[in-house]
Amino acid sequence: MAKPQRKGSKKEKKGSRILQREKEEKALAKLKERIEQYDPAVDEKSLSQFSDLPISQETLQGLNEASFVSLTDIQKKTIPIALKEEDVMGTAKTGSGKTLAFLIPVVESLIRNQITEHDGLAALIVSPTRELAVQIFEVLAKIGKYNSFSAGLVTGGKDVKYEKERVSRMNILVGTPGRISQHLNEAVGMETSNLQVLVLDEADRCLDMGFKKQIDNIIGHLPPTRQTLLFSATQSDSVKDLARLSLTNPKRIGVSSDSEISATPESLDQYYIRIPLDEKLDVLWSFIKSHLKSKMLVFFSSSKQVQYAYETFRTLQPGISLLKLYGRHKQTSRLETTMKFSKAQHACLFATDIVARGLDFPAIDWVVQVDCPEDAATYVHRVGRAARFGRQGKSLLMLLPSEEEGMLKRLEINKIEPKLMNIKQKNKKSIRPQLQSLCFKDPIMKNLGQRAFISYFRSVYVQKDKDVFKIEELPSEKYAASLGLPGAPKIKIKGGNANKEKKNASRQLMALSKANEDGELNDENNGPEKVRTKYDRMFERQNQNVLSDHFLKLNGNQADNDEEDDDFMSVKRKDHELTEIELPDLTVPESKRSAKKALSKKASLASKGNPTKLVFDDEGVAHPIYELEDEEDFIKKGDAKSQKEAFVSKETEAMNEADIEDKETAKNKRQEKKRKRKEIERRAREEVSDSDGDEGEGGYVVSLGGDDTNVDLDRDMEYSSNNESDVEPAVKKPKWFENDKHEKNKKKDTFVEFDEPETLEDLESLTAKLLQH
Questions:
Q1: What is the DSSP secondary-structure string of 600-622?
Q2: Are 680 and 727 in contact (CB under 8 A)?
Q3: With 60 as the cut, is the pLDDT of residue 681 above it?
Q4: Per-residue pLDDT tens digits for 97-147
Q5: Does pTM top 0.70 for this prediction?
Q6: Which residues contact 243 (CB under 8 A, 6 or more apart)?
């Protein structure tokens, strides 16, 4: 039984809510007053902690619990200006705290504008990579713990349908450019008219990774009256163009006029070594073996090199945990690797430039760049993973003799001067024999080595700075040997003057010159010329894949080499002749019903249903056509009600026409069946008249092929003779109601005999039997 409610409780609750609302409004008005009175130019020197900023108590409490107390330089300059709702274009050193520099203004902007969960999207944060987006979202969850906003994370590799159902209810959305652009185009309930803040983190990387089209689309969906915060560790021409399009009178913070590249952290010790290409893996192995108690991040130029180095080093077991991370990993694997490396105390991560931007891995001791970065900006971002937030860190850059002069000159222009480090030969250990053994024993490892070789040369070829990257000076054979390969694979690179000249040259002259070189001209000694197909040319390439040598041996193209080898077993190809007995039976089923079902479209639809045309989206998920139809195209066809009525009427008309055809078909089938039955009856009568002409009491029954219907033939009917009929008469079987009549007649004409009763019981039994009859 419910307790009786105390009088006045509703009024007290209502009064407490009013008091709480008045208290919040007073705090908000006081906060706005503090922001208006705050002068960044005057009060910047007195700023040292987050508590000195004009921010709400909820945000300050979240910062304290997350151990964010002191302000960094970029935060001192950016947050006060951003709190005044001005556009900001910020540049700072890597590891200087840019994430909090835009997250705090975002949260405070939503508090001042009194955004609730029913107001829709109010803040949008765009990040170039999934890992960086996850990191931003985690920091946002910490500092916004005591606020009532809803926040969401959308990145590639996740379920789009799951996100579409929830993205419209988010106040703050963090994600990558591609996925955010997709939701803005496709999500039905995603409204951007109430957007307050747009944040573009690592804007230069977003443009370098090819997201310019998606970013333009995102900006096109947003209202022009908004606050925009653009942050990056470097500034380029493309970023400046983007700033002109999306920012209104922005405050430039941390951008130096004489240099476009920001300086590296002061606590970072930078070194470089001069090393030949074929000694890179040996030096890397020796470096890892001598720093087993360190946390290292190793950069390669391509994912294939990361895979090969990871697999070979893991097999050789250097004595430290090895991890790998590159762009083509699945989303779950990438997040798992990121978390493992962040929590590890001693580990080595092989990665591409996907982790070079913005990610905060705690306490990295060494950043090793095995391959030369494409420019000074990439160098700054790579080494910025170490020495973050004032910690100590070191970096090592491996430069080829052909790269040293050009790369050092570009770093010097940006006020970066790494020190030369000498390698002690006694500490250097070669792993070339082990790599050769691995490639010889394992074809998969050999294939990985070949792909790593090709990907490295392609990465050098596509570089724009030809003064640094000189592909013609790379020792291909030595580098292939250092990877454990028996020879350098042939590389086909599209484009170039050589390919252009080859394309325009006469093919007949090229064929003649090649025949002269190979000594395969038709003459009296050589005999007829052998026809070479594209498959022959493909398998003549040495060291292109792991199956080439095996195919050549099987195909007999290495007969000379096989004769020299003393193998006790040899494999020869033989073309077998197949007989019809060996082939499987692929004939159609003999059953008429199954054949009809297989050949009839109507019969197959009866069991499987009507087919539905589907369209696949970018994620490979199937949708009906109407789901991906543009809204404008749908509106042009009329409103939904009229389209529905037109569709229903059209389908009804089609169904009526089909119904008429089906009825006509069924009628023809019944008539045909009746005609066949009459014909069989006629033939049966003719056969009966020609047989014995017996006029007994019983009639005759004719069995129709495939039909269980019994046709009675009256013996008084006139028959015409027909000796060609194949139907034989059969004795008519009595019906169920006729059986009782025959039995009764039979019982009337039959005498029943019983034994003479001897006792009273026998007499009673006889009486009962007689009564039954």
A1: -HHHHHHHH-----EEE-TTS-E
A2: yes
A3: yes
A4: 888 999 999 999 999 988 888 888 999 999 988 888 999 999 999 999 998
A5: no
A6: 89, 230, 250
Nearest-angstrom CA–CA distance, 655 and 224 = 53
User: Are 728 and 691 within 8 A, CB to CB?
Assistant: no
Closest by Cα among 97, 98, 76, 388 to 230: 98
Cα–Cα distance measured from residue 637 to residue 626, given in angstroms and rounded to the nearest whole number: 13
Q: How far is CA 131 from CA 310, 346, 367, 393, 471, in A?
A: 20, 21, 18, 22, 33
Cα separation, 305 vs 681, whole angstroms: 87
Q: Where along the chain do the CATH 3.40.50.300 domains lie?
A: 21-253, 268-482
Tell me 152's DSSP state: E
Q: pLDDT grade, residue 759 (50/70/90)? A: confident
323 Cβ partners below 8 Å, 6+ apart? 310, 337, 340, 341, 347, 348, 349, 350
The fold for domain 21-253 equals Rossmann fold (3.40.50)
CA distance 388 to 99: 13
Q: Which one, of 112, 114, 117, 87, lies nearest residue 102 by Cα?
A: 87
What does each C-alpha distance from 192 to 108, 120, 224, 602 come to in angstroms? 19, 8, 11, 49
Q: Return the CATH class of domain 268-482.
A: alpha beta
What b/e sequence results for 131-149 when a residue is b if at least 16 CB atoms lie within 10 Å of its CB, and e otherwise? bbbbbbbebbeebbeebeb
List the structure tokens of 624.
């009906």
Name residues whose C-beta falls within 8 Å of residue 438's C-beta, 6 or more positions apart in sequence.
Answer: 312, 315, 445, 484
Mark out the alpha helices in 187-302 (DSSP H runs): 203-208, 212-221, 237-246, 280-289
Name the least confident of 213-227, 440-454, 518-532, 661-675.
518-532
At position 605, the amino acid (one-letter code) is L
Contact 108, 149 (CB under 8 A): no
Residue whose tokens read 């490639």: 439
Ramachandran class of 346: left when φ > 0, alpha when ψ lies in -120 to 50, beta otherwise: beta
